[in-house]
Amino acid sequence: MKTSSKSKRGSIKTKLIVIPLIVVFIVISSIGIFSSYFLRTSLRDEMENNGVYMAERFIANIEDNYRSLEIINDFLDNKIKSAGKMVMGNENMLSNEFIKRLAEDLEVEQIIYYNSDGVAVYSNIDEYIGWKADKGHAVHNFMISSDKELMEEIRKDSESDNYLKYGYIKGSEGTFVQVGINANKVQELTDSFSYQSFLDEISQDEQIYYGLFVDKNLQVLAHNNKEEIGIILDDEGSKAAAIDGVLFTQEWYYEESDVNVLDISYPVVINGEHIGAVSIGLSMDKVQKTIKNNIIFVVAIMIVSFIVLGFILFSVSNYAVKIITRLKEQMQYMEKGDFSNDISEDLINKNDELGEISQAISIMQTSVRDIIKNVIDTSHSLATSSEELTAISQQSATAADEIARAIEEIATGATEQAKDTEIGVLSISELGDIVMKNESHIGNLNDSAERVNRLKDEGLDVLKVLVEKTDINSKYSEEVQQVIIDTNESAEKIANASEMIKSIASQTNLLALNAAIEAARAGDAGRGFAVVAEEIRKLAEQSNKFTEEIGTIVEDLNNKTLTAVKTMEELEDIVLSQTKSVDITNSKFAGIAEAIEDMKMAINEVNHSSDEITIKKQDIIKIMENLSAISEENAAGTEEASASVEEQTAAMEEIANSSEQLSVIAEKLNDQVKQFKI
């Protein structure tokens, strides 16, 4: 509704200014037009009759000139043929002296005799002897043609400034002669008889602004303005006279002389053949002067009326122009990004359309200034958050490196533990063999008992080492579990920071949208700010994209951390089970020691003890197999933990790269908003 109201007021204002001027112009112009019409019509008819007379005189002169030039050309052709035939008739006795005497007797300018290869052999001009025409030259073209003779039109000699008429006659053996007659006077006569000569003559009349001759192809062959010769015309008058053969008259503006002319196009028919048309442009100056004198009084009234009315309209519009100029200067400041200059109160307080425009610009300036302030604050917050995110990523990467080193140590311990377990299994197997030998060799019981005692000591040493490795494994497992828990906490911090950045990016995008809306309201003056707002919006969208990528990475990191924690918990249970198995093994070895002592004290109970040892041996083998399986599970667990840590390290690197890109975006955003003055 507001836009419609302004448009209506603008339409009324236009009517108040334009309609009075139009009414005054129509009334006064009508008086001048009707009073001058009849004078102009009579003068134009008289000019048309004069133009037709000059065109008919032009055609009569051209017909006379055509007949004269035909007679002259026939005479020159016959003279050339006579000279050429005399040369070709005396080929066997030709010499340069003969050619020179013949040229002098016949009063011809040049005689050149060519052999069948086109080389000048004899000539009355020594410089031409030995000369050979290049391809494309008239001499070369005649030589390769099948024509027996050829008469050229008068042309300018290629070696001098003279005009010559050349003719060629060919002999039976391919030899030929070239005869040239000086045609300077003939050319002068031809030039004086030409279309151009007549047009130059009639154009001396001040009332004739141009004269031209155009052929049936509408190409200008002659014109009093030499620069126009050769152009192709396409106007209606030229087509009617040169092609259709009818008289055509028209008035048009002759731009070259800045005047209106009456163009008379008359068809040219020579010897019954329609060859083109002549066009004569007669000056309309007399007509214009007559009309001008007739309407001077009318024009004077018009000038006075326009001056008075123009003064009134100027007084009214000058007020609006001054205010619009001040508003334009204000918009130019805003276009350059300077929003610190406020619109003066006298413009805002005006009670008209210009006052409303001033108020709207002032409101827009305030809104844009607030938006820029919010963008600046947001960009600072974005930069701070990206720096914090980078620091957290670096801490997480350091923690991941520590986890990797701890897992490597655990893997080394698990490998050594597996080797010790294999040694224990081997020792127990050997113990079983000894027990079986004890059953078959009672006589060697004492020796066997000593060997069993020695093997028992070795088994205890192995168990002692196994206990130490188990303690170390348990310690490193606790350290790895604690590091993984710390990594999980760091990932949660990164997720919180990413959410905060995403919120900031969303707010920045909203601010950029508001800025674009305000710039659109400002029109052309706000176009530069709209470009900046679009750049801010793109940066905000990039920030939002990076925060989404960071969120995905953090979520994946949390899942992998939980998996690692679960794996370490399972590893802790395995270590506890392993410790219990070691304790059981230790107690079994103690029983073996007691059995050996009993064996020494009671040989008669050897068989019974041997059976118990066999049973105990089977138990120990099972325990050692369990220990071996536990060691293998420990090794597999450490490999899985190592893979998880490597994935966490890669995720930390991606987070660090994203945070660096986010920092660069924040710097660009700061650079964009620095160009504004608020």
Automatic annotation (TrEMBL):
Pfam families: MCPsignal, sCache_3_2. The chain crosses the membrane at residues 16-39, 295-321. Residues 318-373 form the HAMP domain. The keyword Membrane applies. Keywords: Cell membrane, Membrane, Transducer, Transmembrane, Transmembrane helix. It is a multi-pass membrane protein. Signal peptide: none annotated. One of its GO terms (cellular component) is plasma membrane. Residues 392-649 form the Methyl-accepting transducer domain. SUPFAM superfamilies: Methyl-accepting chemotaxis protein (MCP) signaling domain, Sensory domain-like. Belongs to the methyl-accepting chemotaxis (MCP) protein family. PANTHER family: LYSOZYME-LIKE PROTEIN-RELATED, METHYL-ACCEPTING CHEMOTAXIS PROTEIN MCPB. This is HAMP domain-containing protein. It comes from Tissierella pigra.
